[in-house]
Amino acid sequence: MRHLMSPLDFSTEELDKLFDLANDIEHNPEKYAHACDGKILATCFYEPSTRTRLSFESAMTRLGGRVIGFSDAASSSASKGESVSDTIRIISCYSDICAMRHPKEGAPMVAAEKSWIPVINAGDGGHQHPTQTLTDLLTIRSIRGKLDNFTIGLCGDLKFGRTVHSLINALVRYSNIRFIFISPEELKVPDYITDMLREKDIPYEEVIRLEDVMPHLDILYMTRVQKERFFNEEDYVRLKDFYILNTVKMALAKKDMLVLHPLPRVNEISVEVDEDPRAAYFRQAQYGVYVRMALILTLLELA
Amino acid sequence: MLNVGKIEEGFVLDHIAAGKSLSIYEHLQLDKLDCTVAIIKNARSNKKGKKDILKVECDINTLDLDVLAYIDHNITVNVIKNGEIVEKKDLVLPKQIKNVIRCHNPRCITSIEQELPHIFYLADPEKEIYRCKYCEEKYTEGAK
Protein backbone atom coordinates (compact mmCIF):
# COMPACT_ATOMS: atom_id res chain seq x y z
CA MET A 1 0.00 0.00 0.00
CA ARG A 2 1.30 3.44 -0.94
CA HIS A 3 0.61 6.92 0.36
CA LEU A 4 1.43 10.34 -1.08
CA MET A 5 3.20 12.63 1.38
CA SER A 6 5.58 14.58 -0.86
CA PRO A 7 5.77 15.10 -4.62
CA LEU A 8 9.15 13.37 -4.49
CA ASP A 9 7.56 10.12 -3.26
CA PHE A 10 7.10 9.16 -6.92
CA SER A 11 10.05 8.70 -9.27
CA THR A 12 9.97 10.63 -12.55
CA GLU A 13 9.08 7.36 -14.32
CA GLU A 14 6.16 6.80 -11.94
CA LEU A 15 5.07 10.40 -12.48
CA ASP A 16 5.14 9.85 -16.25
CA LYS A 17 2.79 6.89 -15.80
CA LEU A 18 0.53 8.94 -13.53
CA PHE A 19 0.42 11.83 -16.01
CA ASP A 20 -0.24 9.47 -18.96
CA LEU A 21 -3.20 8.13 -17.01
CA ALA A 22 -4.39 11.67 -16.20
CA ASN A 23 -4.24 12.57 -19.90
CA ASP A 24 -6.14 9.42 -20.82
CA ILE A 25 -8.82 10.41 -18.28
CA GLU A 26 -8.87 13.90 -19.83
CA HIS A 27 -9.50 12.53 -23.32
CA ASN A 28 -11.67 9.51 -22.44
CA PRO A 29 -13.60 10.42 -19.29
CA GLU A 30 -16.36 7.89 -19.98
CA LYS A 31 -13.83 5.04 -19.73
CA TYR A 32 -13.29 5.94 -16.06
CA ALA A 33 -16.81 6.98 -15.04
CA HIS A 34 -17.33 3.77 -13.02
CA ALA A 35 -13.72 2.94 -12.19
CA CYS A 36 -14.33 3.59 -8.48
CA ASP A 37 -17.85 2.21 -8.15
CA GLY A 38 -18.38 1.12 -4.56
CA LYS A 39 -15.28 2.93 -3.28
CA ILE A 40 -15.33 5.72 -0.68
CA LEU A 41 -12.97 8.67 -0.35
CA ALA A 42 -12.76 10.33 3.07
CA THR A 43 -11.82 14.02 2.94
CA CYS A 44 -10.46 14.83 6.41
CA PHE A 45 -9.92 18.58 6.38
CA TYR A 46 -8.84 19.93 9.76
CA GLU A 47 -8.75 23.42 8.28
CA PRO A 48 -10.92 24.85 5.55
CA SER A 49 -9.64 24.63 1.98
CA THR A 50 -12.67 24.62 -0.22
CA ARG A 51 -10.83 24.46 -3.53
CA THR A 52 -8.63 21.47 -2.69
CA ARG A 53 -11.48 19.61 -0.99
CA LEU A 54 -13.88 20.15 -3.89
CA SER A 55 -11.19 19.11 -6.35
CA PHE A 56 -10.79 15.80 -4.50
CA GLU A 57 -14.55 15.36 -4.22
CA SER A 58 -15.01 16.10 -7.89
CA ALA A 59 -12.24 13.64 -8.77
CA MET A 60 -13.80 10.78 -6.76
CA THR A 61 -17.32 11.55 -7.96
CA ARG A 62 -16.18 11.58 -11.60
CA LEU A 63 -14.71 8.12 -11.00
CA GLY A 64 -18.07 6.82 -9.78
CA GLY A 65 -17.03 6.67 -6.13
CA ARG A 66 -18.53 8.34 -3.09
CA VAL A 67 -17.19 10.88 -0.64
CA ILE A 68 -17.53 11.30 3.13
CA GLY A 69 -15.64 13.68 5.38
CA PHE A 70 -15.42 16.87 7.34
CA SER A 71 -14.30 20.32 6.29
CA ASP A 72 -12.91 21.83 9.48
CA ALA A 73 -11.58 20.62 12.80
CA ALA A 74 -14.58 21.98 14.73
CA SER A 75 -16.89 19.46 13.04
CA SER A 76 -14.53 16.53 13.65
CA SER A 77 -13.69 14.61 16.81
CA ALA A 78 -10.41 16.56 16.94
CA SER A 79 -12.46 19.21 18.74
CA LYS A 80 -13.00 16.61 21.50
CA GLY A 81 -9.26 16.02 21.64
CA GLU A 82 -8.95 12.89 19.50
CA SER A 83 -5.47 12.28 18.08
CA VAL A 84 -4.76 11.99 14.36
CA SER A 85 -3.62 8.39 14.95
CA ASP A 86 -6.99 7.43 16.43
CA THR A 87 -9.02 9.34 13.85
CA ILE A 88 -7.31 7.63 10.90
CA ARG A 89 -7.90 4.17 12.38
CA ILE A 90 -11.61 4.99 12.51
CA ILE A 91 -11.59 6.54 9.02
CA SER A 92 -9.84 3.39 7.75
CA CYS A 93 -12.94 1.42 8.81
CA TYR A 94 -15.28 3.78 6.97
CA SER A 95 -13.50 4.38 3.67
CA ASP A 96 -11.04 3.08 1.08
CA ILE A 97 -8.76 6.11 0.68
CA CYS A 98 -8.25 9.35 2.60
CA ALA A 99 -7.21 12.88 1.63
CA MET A 100 -6.05 14.80 4.69
CA ARG A 101 -5.47 18.54 5.15
CA HIS A 102 -4.08 19.56 8.54
CA PRO A 103 -2.58 22.79 9.92
CA LYS A 104 0.16 20.84 11.72
CA GLU A 105 3.16 19.80 9.64
CA GLY A 106 3.61 16.05 9.38
CA ALA A 107 0.04 15.18 10.50
CA PRO A 108 -0.73 13.21 7.29
CA MET A 109 2.48 11.22 7.84
CA VAL A 110 1.33 10.28 11.33
CA ALA A 111 -1.95 9.20 9.75
CA ALA A 112 -0.17 7.17 7.07
CA GLU A 113 1.83 5.30 9.72
CA LYS A 114 -1.34 4.10 11.45
CA SER A 115 -3.65 3.79 8.47
CA TRP A 116 -4.93 0.66 6.75
CA ILE A 117 -5.90 2.68 3.67
CA PRO A 118 -3.84 4.97 1.37
CA VAL A 119 -3.46 8.51 2.71
CA ILE A 120 -2.95 11.53 0.48
CA ASN A 121 -1.41 14.65 1.99
CA ALA A 122 -3.79 17.42 0.89
CA GLY A 123 -1.62 20.09 2.54
CA ASP A 124 0.07 20.16 5.96
CA GLY A 125 0.77 23.67 7.24
CA GLY A 126 3.67 25.32 5.45
CA HIS A 127 5.27 21.96 4.73
CA GLN A 128 3.97 20.09 1.68
CA HIS A 129 1.06 20.24 -0.73
CA PRO A 130 2.00 17.48 -3.16
CA THR A 131 -1.19 17.38 -5.24
CA GLN A 132 -0.68 21.07 -6.10
CA THR A 133 2.79 20.24 -7.39
CA LEU A 134 1.47 17.27 -9.35
CA THR A 135 -1.15 19.61 -10.80
CA ASP A 136 1.54 22.11 -11.83
CA LEU A 137 3.67 19.41 -13.43
CA LEU A 138 0.73 17.85 -15.29
CA THR A 139 -0.33 21.26 -16.60
CA ILE A 140 3.16 22.02 -17.94
CA ARG A 141 3.57 18.54 -19.41
CA SER A 142 0.11 18.50 -21.01
CA ILE A 143 0.36 21.94 -22.63
CA ARG A 144 4.06 21.97 -23.51
CA GLY A 145 4.31 18.23 -24.11
CA LYS A 146 7.42 17.84 -21.94
CA LEU A 147 8.90 18.58 -18.54
CA ASP A 148 12.43 19.50 -19.61
CA ASN A 149 14.28 22.19 -21.55
CA PHE A 150 12.58 25.38 -20.45
CA THR A 151 13.08 28.59 -18.49
CA ILE A 152 10.61 29.11 -15.69
CA GLY A 153 10.11 32.39 -13.89
CA LEU A 154 8.70 32.18 -10.38
CA CYS A 155 7.27 35.49 -9.29
CA GLY A 156 6.00 36.94 -6.01
CA ASP A 157 6.43 35.60 -2.50
CA LEU A 158 9.24 33.10 -2.95
CA LYS A 159 10.22 33.06 0.70
CA PHE A 160 7.09 31.64 2.28
CA GLY A 161 5.40 30.14 -0.78
CA ARG A 162 5.36 26.39 -0.20
CA THR A 163 3.97 25.68 -3.69
CA VAL A 164 7.01 27.41 -5.16
CA HIS A 165 9.54 25.46 -3.06
CA SER A 166 7.80 22.22 -3.82
CA LEU A 167 7.68 22.92 -7.57
CA ILE A 168 11.39 23.81 -7.66
CA ASN A 169 12.28 20.56 -5.85
CA ALA A 170 10.17 18.60 -8.32
CA LEU A 171 11.55 20.34 -11.43
CA VAL A 172 15.23 19.88 -10.58
CA ARG A 173 14.78 16.19 -11.39
CA TYR A 174 14.27 17.08 -15.09
CA SER A 175 17.03 18.14 -17.47
CA ASN A 176 17.93 21.58 -18.69
CA ILE A 177 15.58 23.65 -16.54
CA ARG A 178 16.62 27.23 -15.88
CA PHE A 179 15.06 29.19 -13.00
CA ILE A 180 14.49 32.92 -12.75
CA PHE A 181 13.32 34.11 -9.35
CA ILE A 182 11.42 37.39 -9.41
CA SER A 183 10.71 38.86 -6.00
CA PRO A 184 11.35 41.80 -3.68
CA GLU A 185 14.44 41.50 -1.51
CA GLU A 186 12.29 40.66 1.55
CA LEU A 187 10.65 37.70 -0.15
CA LYS A 188 13.62 36.09 -1.91
CA VAL A 189 13.78 32.33 -2.28
CA PRO A 190 15.41 30.77 0.85
CA ASP A 191 19.15 30.02 0.86
CA TYR A 192 18.68 26.29 1.14
CA ILE A 193 17.03 26.31 -2.28
CA THR A 194 19.74 28.38 -3.99
CA ASP A 195 22.40 26.26 -2.21
CA MET A 196 20.77 23.14 -3.60
CA LEU A 197 20.64 24.61 -7.14
CA ARG A 198 24.33 25.57 -7.00
CA GLU A 199 25.22 22.11 -5.72
CA LYS A 200 23.38 20.50 -8.62
CA ASP A 201 24.82 23.04 -11.06
CA ILE A 202 21.37 24.21 -12.14
CA PRO A 203 21.32 27.75 -13.57
CA TYR A 204 19.24 30.39 -11.80
CA GLU A 205 19.09 34.13 -11.46
CA GLU A 206 17.35 36.44 -9.02
CA VAL A 207 15.77 39.69 -10.18
CA ILE A 208 13.51 42.35 -8.72
CA ARG A 209 11.45 43.43 -11.74
CA LEU A 210 9.22 41.13 -13.77
CA GLU A 211 9.51 43.29 -16.95
CA ASP A 212 13.25 42.72 -17.09
CA VAL A 213 12.93 39.01 -17.70
CA MET A 214 9.55 38.56 -19.42
CA PRO A 215 11.04 37.97 -22.91
CA HIS A 216 13.18 35.07 -21.64
CA LEU A 217 10.45 33.02 -19.98
CA ASP A 218 8.77 29.87 -21.28
CA ILE A 219 6.64 29.59 -18.15
CA LEU A 220 5.67 32.25 -15.62
CA TYR A 221 4.48 30.93 -12.27
CA MET A 222 2.73 33.75 -10.40
CA THR A 223 2.07 33.88 -6.67
CA ARG A 224 0.56 36.49 -4.45
CA VAL A 225 2.64 39.16 -2.70
CA GLN A 226 0.88 39.78 0.58
CA LYS A 227 1.03 43.23 2.09
CA GLU A 228 1.67 41.88 5.59
CA ARG A 229 4.91 40.27 4.45
CA PHE A 230 6.54 43.67 3.99
CA PHE A 231 8.43 45.48 6.71
CA ASN A 232 6.87 48.81 5.86
CA GLU A 233 4.05 50.31 3.86
CA GLU A 234 6.38 52.42 1.67
CA ASP A 235 8.21 49.37 0.33
CA TYR A 236 4.92 47.67 -0.38
CA VAL A 237 3.57 50.63 -2.32
CA ARG A 238 6.87 51.04 -4.20
CA LEU A 239 7.15 47.38 -5.18
CA LYS A 240 3.68 45.96 -5.51
CA ASP A 241 3.19 46.94 -9.16
CA PHE A 242 6.34 45.04 -10.13
CA TYR A 243 4.47 41.87 -9.34
CA ILE A 244 1.14 42.55 -10.98
CA LEU A 245 0.81 40.86 -14.33
CA ASN A 246 -1.11 42.88 -16.91
CA THR A 247 -1.40 43.05 -20.69
CA VAL A 248 1.51 45.53 -20.93
CA LYS A 249 3.85 43.01 -19.35
CA MET A 250 2.30 40.15 -21.32
CA ALA A 251 3.18 42.04 -24.54
CA LEU A 252 6.86 41.54 -23.67
CA ALA A 253 6.52 37.77 -23.35
CA LYS A 254 7.02 34.96 -25.84
CA LYS A 255 3.99 34.03 -27.90
CA ASP A 256 3.81 30.57 -26.38
CA MET A 257 4.71 31.45 -22.79
CA LEU A 258 2.42 29.87 -20.19
CA VAL A 259 1.09 31.72 -17.15
CA LEU A 260 0.38 29.49 -14.14
CA HIS A 261 -0.95 30.36 -10.69
CA PRO A 262 -1.89 28.02 -7.81
CA LEU A 263 -4.98 30.23 -7.16
CA PRO A 264 -6.77 31.89 -5.49
CA ARG A 265 -5.67 35.06 -7.21
CA VAL A 266 -6.28 38.40 -5.54
CA ASN A 267 -4.94 41.16 -7.74
CA GLU A 268 -1.54 39.90 -8.88
CA ILE A 269 -2.93 38.96 -12.28
CA SER A 270 -5.12 41.58 -13.86
CA VAL A 271 -8.41 40.11 -15.12
CA GLU A 272 -7.61 41.44 -18.60
CA VAL A 273 -4.95 38.71 -18.84
CA ASP A 274 -7.60 35.98 -18.41
CA GLU A 275 -8.56 36.19 -22.09
CA ASP A 276 -4.97 35.80 -23.26
CA PRO A 277 -4.49 32.25 -24.64
CA ARG A 278 -1.25 32.03 -22.67
CA ALA A 279 -3.16 32.28 -19.37
CA ALA A 280 -3.31 28.65 -18.24
CA TYR A 281 -4.36 29.02 -14.59
CA PHE A 282 -7.98 28.00 -15.01
CA ARG A 283 -6.96 25.03 -17.16
CA GLN A 284 -4.50 24.25 -14.34
CA ALA A 285 -7.45 23.88 -11.93
CA GLN A 286 -9.02 21.41 -14.39
CA TYR A 287 -5.76 19.43 -14.54
CA GLY A 288 -5.91 19.39 -10.74
CA VAL A 289 -9.00 17.20 -10.97
CA TYR A 290 -7.48 14.89 -13.61
CA VAL A 291 -4.29 14.39 -11.62
CA ARG A 292 -6.27 13.63 -8.44
CA MET A 293 -8.39 11.13 -10.39
CA ALA A 294 -5.22 9.44 -11.66
CA LEU A 295 -3.75 9.48 -8.15
CA ILE A 296 -6.84 7.91 -6.55
CA LEU A 297 -6.84 5.14 -9.20
CA THR A 298 -3.11 4.55 -8.76
CA LEU A 299 -3.17 4.40 -4.95
CA LEU A 300 -6.24 2.15 -4.98
CA GLU A 301 -4.36 -0.05 -7.49
CA LEU A 302 -7.22 0.22 -9.95
CA ALA A 303 -5.13 1.77 -12.76
CA MET B 1 43.36 9.93 43.67
CA LEU B 2 40.05 8.12 43.46
CA ASN B 3 40.15 4.48 42.42
CA VAL B 4 37.31 2.66 40.75
CA GLY B 5 37.81 -1.06 40.25
CA LYS B 6 37.87 -2.98 36.97
CA ILE B 7 34.68 -4.31 35.45
CA GLU B 8 34.25 -7.86 34.15
CA GLU B 9 31.86 -7.17 31.27
CA GLY B 10 30.46 -3.91 29.94
CA PHE B 11 31.65 -0.58 28.63
CA VAL B 12 34.05 2.10 29.62
CA LEU B 13 33.14 5.39 27.99
CA ASP B 14 36.25 7.51 28.10
CA HIS B 15 37.09 11.08 27.03
CA ILE B 16 33.62 12.39 27.75
CA ALA B 17 33.69 16.18 27.87
CA ALA B 18 33.97 17.21 31.53
CA GLY B 19 30.55 17.60 33.09
CA LYS B 20 28.66 15.74 30.33
CA SER B 21 28.55 12.30 31.95
CA LEU B 22 25.18 12.79 33.61
CA SER B 23 23.54 13.77 30.35
CA ILE B 24 24.96 10.62 28.74
CA TYR B 25 23.70 8.59 31.70
CA GLU B 26 20.24 9.94 30.89
CA HIS B 27 20.44 9.48 27.12
CA LEU B 28 21.54 5.85 27.53
CA GLN B 29 18.71 5.42 30.06
CA LEU B 30 21.10 3.79 32.51
CA ASP B 31 18.68 4.52 35.34
CA LYS B 32 16.44 1.84 33.88
CA LEU B 33 19.16 -0.83 33.90
CA ASP B 34 19.80 -2.97 36.95
CA CYS B 35 23.58 -2.77 36.74
CA THR B 36 26.59 -1.16 38.35
CA VAL B 37 27.49 2.24 36.97
CA ALA B 38 30.43 4.40 37.97
CA ILE B 39 30.30 8.05 37.03
CA ILE B 40 33.66 9.74 37.28
CA LYS B 41 33.58 13.49 36.91
CA ASN B 42 36.50 15.78 36.23
CA ALA B 43 39.13 13.06 35.99
CA ARG B 44 42.60 14.22 34.96
CA SER B 45 43.19 14.02 31.23
CA ASN B 46 46.46 14.54 29.36
CA LYS B 47 44.59 15.53 26.21
CA LYS B 48 41.84 17.71 27.63
CA GLY B 49 42.93 18.63 31.13
CA LYS B 50 39.64 17.31 32.54
CA LYS B 51 37.27 14.62 31.35
CA ASP B 52 34.40 12.45 32.54
CA ILE B 53 34.37 8.65 32.44
CA LEU B 54 31.42 6.25 32.68
CA LYS B 55 31.90 2.61 33.57
CA VAL B 56 28.90 0.41 33.00
CA GLU B 57 28.89 -3.22 34.05
CA CYS B 58 26.34 -4.97 31.86
CA ASP B 59 25.84 -7.48 29.07
CA ILE B 60 27.53 -5.84 26.07
CA ASN B 61 24.48 -6.43 23.89
CA THR B 62 22.11 -4.47 26.09
CA LEU B 63 23.16 -0.93 25.20
CA ASP B 64 22.52 0.96 21.97
CA LEU B 65 25.53 3.24 21.79
CA ASP B 66 24.76 4.85 18.41
CA VAL B 67 23.23 7.80 20.14
CA LEU B 68 26.65 8.64 21.65
CA ALA B 69 27.91 9.63 18.21
CA TYR B 70 25.20 12.26 18.06
CA ILE B 71 26.04 13.60 21.50
CA ASP B 72 29.83 13.64 21.12
CA HIS B 73 32.02 11.74 18.65
CA ASN B 74 35.11 12.23 20.71
CA ILE B 75 33.97 9.71 23.28
CA THR B 76 36.07 6.53 23.26
CA VAL B 77 34.01 3.39 23.73
CA ASN B 78 35.94 0.47 25.20
CA VAL B 79 34.12 -2.85 25.19
CA ILE B 80 35.14 -5.02 28.12
CA LYS B 81 34.86 -8.79 28.38
CA ASN B 82 36.50 -10.94 31.06
CA GLY B 83 38.07 -7.83 32.50
CA GLU B 84 39.93 -6.96 29.27
CA ILE B 85 39.31 -4.45 26.49
CA VAL B 86 38.17 -6.57 23.54
CA GLU B 87 37.14 -3.77 21.21
CA LYS B 88 37.39 -0.02 20.78
CA LYS B 89 34.21 1.02 19.02
CA ASP B 90 34.16 3.73 16.35
CA LEU B 91 31.15 5.94 16.76
CA VAL B 92 29.08 6.46 13.64
CA LEU B 93 26.32 9.07 13.44
CA PRO B 94 23.03 7.19 13.70
CA LYS B 95 20.74 7.39 10.65
CA GLN B 96 17.80 7.92 12.98
CA ILE B 97 17.45 9.02 16.57
CA LYS B 98 14.32 8.55 18.61
CA ASN B 99 13.29 10.54 21.67
CA VAL B 100 16.76 11.95 22.23
CA ILE B 101 16.08 15.45 20.98
CA ARG B 102 12.73 17.17 20.59
CA CYS B 103 11.30 19.02 17.61
CA HIS B 104 10.99 22.70 18.47
CA ASN B 105 8.80 23.64 15.51
CA PRO B 106 5.48 24.80 17.05
CA ARG B 107 3.73 23.96 13.77
CA CYS B 108 4.89 20.32 13.90
CA ILE B 109 2.39 17.55 14.67
CA THR B 110 4.75 16.33 17.43
CA SER B 111 3.69 19.42 19.42
CA ILE B 112 0.13 18.13 19.86
CA GLU B 113 -0.15 14.42 19.01
CA GLN B 114 -0.39 12.24 22.11
CA GLU B 115 2.73 10.15 22.82
CA LEU B 116 4.14 10.61 19.33
CA PRO B 117 7.88 9.85 19.44
CA HIS B 118 10.28 12.59 18.38
CA ILE B 119 12.18 10.99 15.51
CA PHE B 120 14.98 12.70 13.60
CA TYR B 121 16.80 11.40 10.55
CA LEU B 122 20.33 12.22 9.44
CA ALA B 123 19.73 14.52 6.45
CA ASP B 124 23.32 15.59 5.84
CA PRO B 125 26.08 13.43 7.35
CA GLU B 126 28.81 15.91 6.34
CA LYS B 127 27.23 18.88 8.06
CA GLU B 128 25.72 16.61 10.76
CA ILE B 129 22.23 17.94 10.12
CA TYR B 130 19.25 16.11 11.57
CA ARG B 131 15.70 16.83 10.44
CA CYS B 132 12.41 15.98 12.09
CA LYS B 133 10.81 13.01 10.37
CA TYR B 134 7.41 14.71 10.39
CA CYS B 135 7.92 18.40 9.59
CA GLU B 136 11.50 18.14 8.18
CA GLU B 137 12.57 21.14 10.24
CA LYS B 138 16.32 21.19 10.88
CA TYR B 139 17.28 20.58 14.50
CA THR B 140 19.20 23.46 16.00
CA GLU B 141 20.66 23.06 19.45
CA GLY B 142 19.84 26.54 20.72
CA ALA B 143 16.15 26.54 19.77
CA LYS B 144 14.88 25.02 22.98
Note the topology.
The complex is a heterodimer of chains A (303) and B (144).
Chain A: H1 12-27, E1 40-45, H2 50-62, E2 66-70, H3 84-94, E3 97-102, H4 107-114, E4 119-124, H5 130-144, E5 150-155, H6 162-171, E6 177-182, H7 191-199, E7 204-207, E8 219-222, H8 233-239, H9 247-250, E9 258-260, H10 281-299
Parallel strand pairs in A: 1-2, 1-3, 3-4, 5-6, 5-8, 6-7, 8-9
Helix pairs in contact in A: 1-5, 1-10, 2-10, 3-4, 5-6, 5-10
Chain B: E1 10-17, H1 21-27, E2 36-45, E3 49-57, H2 66-71, E4 76-81, E5 84-89, E6 96-98, E7 119-124, E8 129-132
Antiparallel strand pairs in B: 1-3, 1-4, 2-3, 4-5, 6-7, 7-8
CATH fold descriptor of the largest domain in chain A: Rossmann fold
Low-confidence stretches of chain B: none
Percent helix of chain B: under 10%
Largest sheet of chain A: 5 strands, parallel
Task: Estimate nothing, just give the exact number of structural domains of chain B.
Answer: 2
- For this structure, the CATH topology of the largest domain in chain B is Alpha-Beta Plaits
Helical segment count of chain B: 2
**Average pLDDT taken over every residue of chain A:** 94
- H-E order of chain A: HEHEHEHEHEHEHEEHHEH
General shape of chain B = elongated
Number of H/I helices of chain A: 10
Description:
The complex is a heterodimer of chains A (303) and B (144). Chain A is α/β, with parallel strands linked by helices and 303 residues long. In chain A, 37% of the residues lie in helices and 15% in strands. Chain A contains 10 helices and 9 strands. The longest helix of chain A is centred in the last third of the chain and has 19 residues, at 281-299. By secondary structure, chain B is mainly beta. Chain B folds into 2 domains: 10-89, Aspartate carbamoyltransferase regulatory subunit, N-terminal domain (Alpha-Beta Plaits); 96-132, no CATH class. In chain B, 9% of the residues lie in helices and 36% in strands. Chain B is elongated and about 50 Å long. At the A-B interface, helix 4 of A face loops of B.
